[in-house]
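Title: Comparing notes on inverse folding

I've been comparing how different people in this forum approach sequence design from structure. To keep things fair, I'm posting one structure and asking everyone to reply with a full sequence. Here's the target:
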């Protein structure tokens, strides 16, 4: 029996991803999906597709009853949200790759989805070719998901790989990432960690039912990392990567952040180089699983859009199981982290806030310490990202409150005080 829906697509955006999708669809006739119109901002620009396909008028897509799917792959978050809301309200399903828009408007988008039979799918918005959202949504049961650790930004990973392995300068590596189409139009979104935390915001919804604006998530990019940090990493046989992490603590609440981290050579994430992304999931019975694939670029991102389009033929929708079918988890900042901090001048470092300082190197030009600090002494604080200070978490950085009490008790016992 033939039940698959014919998909008539209105495409918004014809940049790296939009054009990639156009080409990929031409090579996938079996999908029964065709692009009827493409809405673009600059109609004067020469495109590698028939001119009749293009319009600068949104309504040519949004008011066309024959178009049943809107694919939205534009850059600006505000216009993207308007397009997606109008499409959903008029019963058109939507496939989006706009991570910033999704992160900024998640609560409204959740409400909008309740009021429509149309689907909103966005697998391409996080980790591009890796099917991470559908896996988190469908496969992992809430109670079993212990932790997720991921590289979700291809550009920063590309830059770090080129700097570490090919000794390119930051600027050279960034330029290359831009030329290859991995970087955002405004590359500070990549470099300062915004792109990664935007993705992490809605991945946390699918993983744990957490709906938080990025202002409630601690994050930074790779722009504070200094040559001296890379040297220390090399001495310790570590890589530095920008890692998005979430872990369920003993009390059932979730610790989550996006920060640079030292990665051991035998860690799965050490294997993730260039524009690739990787996700390591730890669950109750399956132990560790590792997802790996291209996280940026034209065809890898288009492949995820294509997969969402295919899922629409079966009227697939996200159920947001962790949010609606389970008790959602709560984000917490009540835990400790073990971190490396390098600095130019000790006066900028709140030494007294460290529970313990395990390494101390104050004799070099570039000074550093490794110690354990409460997360609240990082969250909402700026000392660790200004005055030339740089923070890189150590491997397995999250320390539960309970464990710190144990550590303290042990050290007091050792000192013969109790
Ligand atoms: N600028 C993004 C990245 C593109 O580098 O990961 C893919 O979302």
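Reply #1:
Here's my take.
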């Amino acid at each position: 029996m033939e039940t698959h829906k014919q998909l008539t697509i209105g495409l918004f955006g014809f940049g790296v991803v939009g054009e990639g999708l156009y080409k990929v669809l031409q090579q996938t006739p079996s999908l029964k999906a065709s692009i009827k119109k493409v809405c673009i901002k600059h109609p004067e620009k020469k495109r590698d597709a028939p001119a009749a396909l293009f319009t600068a008028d949104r309504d040519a897509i949004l008011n066309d009853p024959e178009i049943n799917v809107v694919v939205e792959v534009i850059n600006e978050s505000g216009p993207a949200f308007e397009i997606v809301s109008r499409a959903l309200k008029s019963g058109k399903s939507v496939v989006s790759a706009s991570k910033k828009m999704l992160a900024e408007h998640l609560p409204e988008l959740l409400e909008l989805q309740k009021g429509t039979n149309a689907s909103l799918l966005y697998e391409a918005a996080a980790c591009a070719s890796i099917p991470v959202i559908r896996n988190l949504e469908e496969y992992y049961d809430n109670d079993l998901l212990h932790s997720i650790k991921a590289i979700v930004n291809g550009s920063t990973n590309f830059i770090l790989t080129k700097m570490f392995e090919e000794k390119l300068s930051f600027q050279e590596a960034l330029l290359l990432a831009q030329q290859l189409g991995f970087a955002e139009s405004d590359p500070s979104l990549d470099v300062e960690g915004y792109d990664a935390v935007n993705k992490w915001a809605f991945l946390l919804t699918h993983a744990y039912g957490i709906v938080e604006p990025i202002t409630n998530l601690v994050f930074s990019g790779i722009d504070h990392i200094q040559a001296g940090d890379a040297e220390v990493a090399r001495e310790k046989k570590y890589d530095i990567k920008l890692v998005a992490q979430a872990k369920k603590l003993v009390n059932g609440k979730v610790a989550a952040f996006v920060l640079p981290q030292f990665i051991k050579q035998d860690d799965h994430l050490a294997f993730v180089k260039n524009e690739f992304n990787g996700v390591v999931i730890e669950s109750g019975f399956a132990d560790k699983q590792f997802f790996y694939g291209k996280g940026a670029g034209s065809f890898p991102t288009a492949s995820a859009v294509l997969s969402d389009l295919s899922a629409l033929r079966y009227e697939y929708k996200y159920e947001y199981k962790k949010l609606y079918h389970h008790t959602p988890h709560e984000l917490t900042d009540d835990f400790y982290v073990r971190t490396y901090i390098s600095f130019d001048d000790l006066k900028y470092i709140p030494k007294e806030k460290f529970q313990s300082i395990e390494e101390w190197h104050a004799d070099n030009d570039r000074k550093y310490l490794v110690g354990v600090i409460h997360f609240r002494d990082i969250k909402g604080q700026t000392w660790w990202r200004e005055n030339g200070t740089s923070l890189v978490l150590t491997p397995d950085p999250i320390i539960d409150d309970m464990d710190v009490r144990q550590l303290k008790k042990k050290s007091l016992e050792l000192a013969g005080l109790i």
